[in-house]
Design brief:
With about 325 residues, this protein is an alpha+beta fold. The protein is built from 11 helices and 14 strands. The longest helix has 14 residues. It is elongated. The chain starts with a helix and ends in a 10-residue tail after the last helix.
């Protein structure tokens, strides 16, 4: 037991979590954003203890997928030593020890609402937001917003509202698994900009509510390089042959159309809409897609440019090109 506790404390230090006082029944922890939480440390199953006065911190050498899922969903906190993992208030504070998030990570319900709240705070650029504003922006209930913000390690609170810690963007980019859903792949000889216009026009005519993301949206938010591919979110399947595309494999595709599982993509794109000829996904979804789906050789540099522009409020305006 003591050896496990020693190893757990090393993992906490790596995660920049500092135990300050108490014992294993009521241990006070200072999180990276200086928020203080008190936990009751358990080595037995956290699912069996519903009577604890403090939040449960389950510690173990490793944990089964169901336990990790529950911790990520906020049922309790979790620290494991092999692999090193520190999940507190639904946030994995040691994300670099995890596999790349474009790989399937876990089963079960994904916290789309919390991720939308995080995007809203990041895109606010440090401006304090009230919970009712966040609820309106995300389409969530006030209760859901309150739950998402409760004990969040990357949220700062003041009497004017809540703001995002600068580290939240990194945590979100690593934890967000992508929008999921059904993807179809298409090929065209036209330039990506022309493909984006053709695909969006057809989708609009079919009431499929298109949203451009990836390379093309990044070029609108933060022009830096010519798009290499097109990614578009739609609400229903479309046969893009009608827009002079041909079906393609994923590796051959110049256009990828996605019906996303993430219901907040459309909500935030609507409430955070910017003046543009074509409808765009929000800048953070665009950044994730640019990083994970772009076929351009300089996508990392383009992502850096977009990320910097997010801090400057690129969601307040976009260019038509």
């Amino acid at each position: 037991m003591q050896e496990l506790v020693d190893d757990v404390f090393q993992v906490l230090r790596r995660a920049n979590v500092r135990p300050t006082s108490g014992d294993l029944k009521a241990l006070s922890l200072v999180l990276p954003n200086r928020h203080i939480t008190t936990v009751a440390v358990r080595t037995t199953s956290p699912f069996a203890d519903a009577t604890a006065r403090n939040r449960i911190l389950h510690i173990a050498v490793d944990a089964p997928a169901a336990t990790v899922d529950a911790a990520l969903n906020g049922d309790f906190d979790l620290v494991t030593t092999d692999p090193a993992r520190a999940i507190i208030a639904s946030i994995n504070l040691l994300p670099t020890d995890q596999p790349p998030r474009d790989q399937p990570m876990r089963r079960g319900k994904k916290p789309w609402g919390r991720w939308a709240v995080e995007r809203t705070l990041i895109l606010a650029g440090g401006e304090p937001l009230r919970q009712n504003t966040i609820a309106t922006t995300t389409g969530l209930t006030h209760q859901a917003v309150s739950h998402a913000l409760r004990e969040h390690p990357y949220v700062r609170r003041s009497r004017n509202g809540v703001t995002a810690d600068p580290a939240l963007i990194d945590a979100w980019l690593i934890e967000y698994p992508g929008p999921g859903g059904l993807a179809t792949h298409w090929y065209s000889l036209d330039e990506p900009g022309q493909q984006a216009t053709a695909a969006s026009t057809l989708a609009t005519e079919l009431d499929a509510a298109p949203l451009l993301s990836g390379d093309v949206a990044a070029d609108r938010y933060a022009p830096w390089r010519r798009p290499a591919s097109v990614r578009i979110y739609i609400s229903e399947f479309i046969d893009f042959v009608a827009a002079d595309f041909t079906p393609a494999t994923r590796s051959e595709a110049t256009l990828t159309a996605v019906i996303p599982d993430d219901p907040t993509i459309r909500t935030l794109a609507t409430t955070l809409a910017v003046p543009a000829e074509l409808s765009l996904a929000d800048p953070l979804i665009t950044l994730w897609d640019l990083t994970h789906t772009s076929t351009g050789p300089d996508r990392s540099e383009a992502a850096d440019v977009l990320r910097k522009s997010i801090g400057l409020g690129c969601n307040r305006g976009a260019t038509d090109r």
